[in-house]
Amino acid sequence: xxxxxxxxxxxxxxxxxxxxxxxxxxxxxxxxxxxxxxxxxxxxxxxxxxxxxxxxxxxxxxxxxxxxxxxxxxxxxxxxxxxxxxxxxxxxxxxxxxxxxxxxxxxxxxxxxxxxxxxxxxxxxxxxxxxxxxxxxxxxxxxxxxxxxxxxxxxxxxxxxxxxxxxxxxxxxxxxxxxxxxxxxxxxxxxxxxxxxxxxxxxxxxxxxxxxxxxxxxxxxxxxxxxxxxxxxxxxxxxxxxxxxxxxxxxxxxxxxxxxxxxxxxxxxxxxxxxxxxxxxxxxxxxxxxxxxxxxxxxxxxxxxxxxxxxxxxxxxxxxxxxxxxxxxxxxxxxxxxxxxxxxxxxxxxxxxxxxxxxxx
Length: 361
Known about the structure:
The protein is built from ten helices and 15 strands. It is an alpha/beta fold. Strands 10-11-7-12-6-13-14-15 form an eight-stranded mixed beta sheet, with helices on both faces.
């Protein structure tokens, strides 16, 4: 395998904070080694931490995985160019919490499984809180399937970097009264993000801790589904106050919600659960707003909330307009329709629960 071919592939890896130039143009490719069995790429970073380091590492690996034969052993490593031997790898362990110091409430929006509309709830909850007059931000922590750019009409936004070298901060997008940050802002259209567990955790920390959030009443974190490494990393390294759990009424979703509740209540995690949101509670045709069809079962979330002794914050109906608004980048919570009012009621209940800690469990 020729190293020139590998270098050519690396020209596809662009640095959004450096005029979208490639890592090759920027001289960041320190070394390329290749043989019949595998490829090793060494990326060089300056002694000051690059806020997009983990994204660039992940993008480099993704380009190689897509273009090299299946089974090729791929290693992407880093060095700090300005440090005298022995060279040390870049580390994000020294990231501080300064950018979160003016955030009043940091709340995760979680689900035990995918497909329950967690991101839809997170985006519309953020917009609803902003409509109530709160200062709101949302971090899209679903690093494997970021959907916030599409759902908010902010696709194509590339965060600018502000500050001196070594202390740069990413500037979030602002729309609908909410500050948005997503790993999707850095990916090329259609680019699959290929992350190993530790890499995904590190990228997420950078996306939360190196962002100029400013003063916020609420920072919502749209968490990936499940109860894996990313969740544990978040609750240990980010001062998350608690979580809202999203489910649908059907039994298969409720079984996974139980795992999510157990995770947050585990003594090693011990985070508050502000309540449960039952999404897709019933189907209501827009032309027949009084009709309800319980196609996923009835009151499954109500029963789950009762069994676990947690508040039911809201039941969100399934209306075609919610999907259409999400696909068009205009969250339904911006409107005055009945489904939008359900999100406003949810936001009001969460705000009350957040300011009354004794009500969370």
